[in-house]
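Quick note —
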Amino acid sequence: MQIFRPFRQVLLFLFLVLIGGCVTQFIPDTTEDQDLLVVEGLITDQPGQNKIKISTSTHLGERNSPKPLVGCNVTISDDEGNNFNFNETSGGTYVADPSFHGVIGRSYALHIYAGSSRHNLSYQSAPVLLKPVPAIDSVYYERRVFTRMEDGSPTGEGCQIFLDTHDPSNNCKFYRWEYVETWEFSLPYLVPNSHCWVTDYSDNINIKNTTSLSESIIVKLPLDLVTNATDRLKERYSILVNQYSITEEEYLYWEKLQNVVEQVGSLYDLTPATIPSNIVCVENPDEKVLGYFSVSGVQSRRIFIKEFFRGIADLYKNCEHAVIDGSEVPPDLGNTVWIIIDHQSPPSYRVLTYTKGCADCTVRGTTVEPDFWRNSK
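Predicted structure written out below.
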């Protein structure tokens, strides 16, 4: 059929390019707007978690880098005539007073005055009802084996994180989850900053609806697979799961975005303007806006994992460039080599490394122990 001829020609072209060992970036012409407003907003019924991030979209063909929109005037209004100001704390991030929180049963709308950087345009969302969310019944894990020896014994292990929840009132039908991972790790050398904690935030989309069920019950929902490719499970690991109640309209937004992520790459790739937002430009309703203003109740649950898992990655096995006697004067190494002094085994010796992270754990994390970590012991 003639319709497949261009497709075959493209395949032939790609084959010739690969044979030639040369790759040239192709950036197609597009009529899509190049500077779309991007809004990430979440208002909950809990204080201290309410902020709005505003930026502009990345141009097609550019490396994905945030372009925060500064100097905006950001407010939230509710259906009782109250207005709440959000102050800019860092580039493009606008945060409410720590005491502010949404109220179950009220509707909230977002208002943005973008200022001169966007021709003094104003943007606003549709009112969104803050719905209650049931508590999380449990967060738990099961051990997973990724590699085995010939006799079947495991050599590489990790775990799958699961969640159970239900709504006794059967009112909450649409759910979304986010999680925050924290783990501690230690460097294999005696250095001032040898013990740290790392915090990482989920960047995948976890949603579920129970509209096809007679009861709103979710059992053994897989949230996160923690593999042995990192050192997350080497010492002690924790995951905090946040559960949100969302409207059907927001669920459809995340579902469409999830489909794009599965086809394109990751949550922070260029978001297609075909996914509808609940935010519009007041002066120009035809202008496309990316992102969603979300209002939700939130319930949280944290678990800790401290077990032995086989085959956890050793991220510091290639640290040593050279080892010299502790009494020797190290050579002039310039600024590209770091020196680790180890006094454990006399005579003392020095390990020379080209990697700063081998000598200072703050390259990856912080030496400040989180409060929840200390209180959990």
